[in-house]
Structure formats: structure tokens, C-alpha cells
Write a structure and sequence with these properties.
The chain is built from 14 helices and 14 strands. It has helices spanning 14-22, 38-47, 71-78, 82-85, 96-102, 105-123, 180-189, 202-209, 220-225, 240-244, 270-290, 302-315, 324-329, 359-379; strands spanning 3-5, 11-12, 27-29, 35-36, 50-52, 58-59, 133-139, 142-145, 161-163, 169-171, 195-199, 230-232, 255-258, 262-267.
């Protein structure tokens, strides 16, 4: 056993760990309050190295006091540094069965699909910088996911990682996303979920940062494929507490607004999960545009809404409106308007808000404005 003392360093990277290993180290001494980057923790686990305090006590890299709560800080410090992205992860004892699965034709097809989804998210401005993450469950205890600190526009199949349902990295050369716990909580709680997409589309995120959810029963396609949307409370991204915020909602919703953060969608394939992100973002955008027209939008009549729910049930898609009693019996927390909080000014079909001008008034305003512009042109 060879011990290397890293107590002179306050911030320890994956490169520091690899350098110590190359020097023959099996154990590392770290100071109290040291900051391990995500790649450092992954490298320690993958190389099977032991952390110790100055007193010689073992220390767990996964439960390091500064670990989870500093994920955002570590990412910010590594942002734009190629060496942070290039940090390689070498599995401690590769499981041959898992390794074959990760390199199988089925996995190859899923990796290519994940990369295509990443490109679509980036092209539609649903992710920026290295934001967002994508995963797909490939086995009972195996999930292919995107790496940390890499733009979704730059994803290649060889960049992807294989993790188990506890978030431990099994294969892949780059460190897995720190938000894989969010994906895994969905897989654990929803057996039919086979793929998860987390991203930050601006119009949907606008609802998330204002504590609102878009109403249902306005556009048929949205109601069928997404419909009721939940809003989870804020927690620090990358932590297990953050991942657990969606547990009360994922059985009844395939799309969830993440408080002050973004959205997460699950489906049977990565492509379909991305479709739900598109459905939600376009819907929120459309609602915003309709609010600028000066008249309230019309709601789908309740009887017709039931027709849409019947279609949805036949497709096997979840919706909180199917069974309110079941949610209550499961002690799922309810907030007033959590499912369909209607923006101010909305009305039932044929109704107009008293504060809104009528069509005749709007036409008079437009006519006056046009006449003023034409008069100004004639004066020139």
C-alpha cells in the first residue's frame, strides 16, 4: 500500500488522482473541506483507490461533504476547460456481460438515437452550453446516458456512458452526467419508462420559474400526448434530493416542470421523450402568443376533453386526470392549481374578459393608428 498526501490541494481534479495512481498510490490523504470534482470522484471509484483522513480513517468519495452540493460549482470551474471534459474514466473491474451489452448492436442503435436527440435539442435551443442530459434504459440494471460537460450538439456515440440504477459508472470513457440520479428515480418508479430527456426550453422554463403550470384542454394534440403537467419543488441540480423531487409526480405525468430549472420528460424511446419536450415548449409558446392578441383563448368543452382522455388511455399514456382518488390514497401532495393553473384572462368558449377590449374597439384602435401613419407619410 502506498499513500499519497494531497492535503496541499484544496480542489482536486481527476488529473490529480490519475497522477497519484501513476506514481503508485493506492490510498490518498485528503484535507477536511477539500473539493473533489465530479471527474475526481469517478476516477477514485473506477480505480478502486481509498481515501483517508490525516488520522488514517477511511473516507467515502461518494459521500464527501462537499460532493453533491458543489456539483454546480465544480461544473462552473471546469466550464470551457478541455482537460475537464477529456478526463477519462477507467472502470475498476469491467463486467464482461455489461461490457458486451454496452457494445452490442442494440446499444449502438440507442447511442446513435441519443446523439440525434441531442442534436435536435441543441438545434431548437432547448439546451445551451453543456446543459441538459439524455438517457435510455437498456437492461434491468443498465442505463446509457450522456456525459457531463459536453454540448449536446457535439455528442458522438463513443462519448456515452453506461451506469447502473444507483448511478455508478460501469463503462464509457467520459464521466457520466451528474444528473443521472434524476433519470434513475424515474426508471425506478415508472417501469414503462425506457428513456428520459432533461432540457431547458425557454417558454416552458418560463412557467417553471414563475411557479405556474400550463392549463390543459386548450389544444387537442398537447392534451393527448402530454396533457396535465406537474411542477416539482426546487432542489440543487445533481443531488439526490433534486432527483427525489419528481417521485410524487412521475407515475401520473410523462412531463414535469422542474422548479427554477427546466423540464424532464420520459417515454418508451429517446425520440418520443424529445417529442414531449417539443409538445410542451410549443404549447407554452402558443399560450404566450395568444395572451398578446387581446382576447382570451377558448377552452375545449369538458365533454370533448373526455374524448381526448379516452384516446390517451387507449395509447397507454399517463394523465393525472384519470384517477384523482388514487393520487389521494397514495398521499401525493396537492397544491391549488398544480395541474391546471389558468393564466389570468382565460375564459370559457364564447366568453370575453371584462377588462379586454372587444373586436370593434380593437379595429378602431388599429384604424386610428394606420390613419396616423398615413398622414405622417403624406406630410413628407
Amino acid at each position: 500500500m502506498k499513500i499519497v498526501d494531497l492535503s496541499m490541494k484544496k480542489r482536486i481534479s481527476g488529473r490529480d488522482i490519475r497522477d497519484a495512481r501513476e506514481a503508485g498510490a493506492t490510498d490518498l490523504i485528503l484535507p477536511d473541506g477539500s473539493q473533489l470534482t465530479p471527474s475526481a470522484r469517478e476516477t477514485i471509484r473506477s480505480l478502486g483507490m481509498t481515501l483517508r483522513t490525516r488520522e488514517g480513517k477511511r473516507k467515502d468519495a461518494a459521500s464527501d461533504a462537499d460532493g453533491e452540493k458543489n456539483n454546480l460549482e465544480q461544473a462552473a470551474l471546469a466550464y470551457g476547460r478541455p482537460e475537464a471534459v477529456a478526463a477519462k474514466v477507467v472502470p475498476k473491474s469491467p463486467d464482461r456481460k455489461m461490457d458486451r451489452l454496452f457494445r452490442s448492436p442494440e446499444a449502438k442503435a440507442l447511442k446513435e438515437e441519443i446523439c440525434a436527440v441531442g442534436w435536435k435539442l441543441w438545434m431548437r435551443s432547448y439546451v445551451d452550453g453543456n446543459g441538459g442530459n439524455i438517457s435510455c434504459r437498456i437492461g434491468e440494471n443498465a442505463v446509457i446516458c450522456t456525459p457531463t460537460l459536453l454540448s449536446k450538439a457535439d455528442l458522438k456515440p463513443e462519448d456515452l456512458c453506461l451506469v447502473d440504477l444507483e448511478g455508478n459508472q460501469i463503462a464509457g470513457g467520459l464521466p457520466r452526467t451528474s444528473e443521472v440520479f434524476l433519470h434513475n428515480e424515474i426508471y425506478k418508479n415508472v417501469p414503462q419508462a425506457r428513456a428520459v430527456v432533461h432540457c431547458h426550453p425557454p417558454h416552458a422554463t418560463a412557467y417553471a420559474i414563475t411557479g405556474r403550470v400550463p392549463p390543459s384542454a386548450v389544444i387537442p394534440e398537447f392534451d393527448v400526448f402530454v396533457g396535465s403537467v406537474a411542477l416539482s419543488p426546487y432542489e440543487t441540480p445533481g443531488t439526490k434530493k433534486f432527483a427525489e423531487t419528481v417521485i410524487p409526480f412521475v407515475r401520473d405525468h410523462n412531463t414535469i416542470l422542474l422548479g427554477n430549472h427546466g423540464i424532464v420528460c420520459w417515454a418508451d424511446t429517446p425520440t418520443h421523450a424529445e417529442w414531449y419536450a417539443e409538445n410542451l415548449e410549443t404549447y407554452c409558446w402558443t399560450l404566450l402568443i395568444s395572451s398578446q392578441l387581446g382576447v382570451p383563448y377558448a377552452r375545449i368543452p369538458p365533454a370533448k376533453e373526455q374524448d381526448l382522455l379516452a384516446i390517451k388511455k387507449r395509447l397507454g399514456l399517463p394523465d393525472a386526470r384519470f384517477s384523482v382518488r388514487e393520487r389521494v390514497s397514495q398521499n401525493v401532495p396537492e397544491r391549488p392549481g398544480a395541474i391546471a393553473l389558468t393564466p389570468s384572462g382565460a375564459a370559457e368558449p364564447g366568453q370575453l374578459s371584462a377588462e379586454m377590449p372587444g373586436h370593434a374597439e380593437i379595429e378602431a384602435i388599429v384604424r386610428t393608428a394606420v390613419e396616423a401613419v398615413m398622414a405622417a407619410i403624406r406630410r413628407k
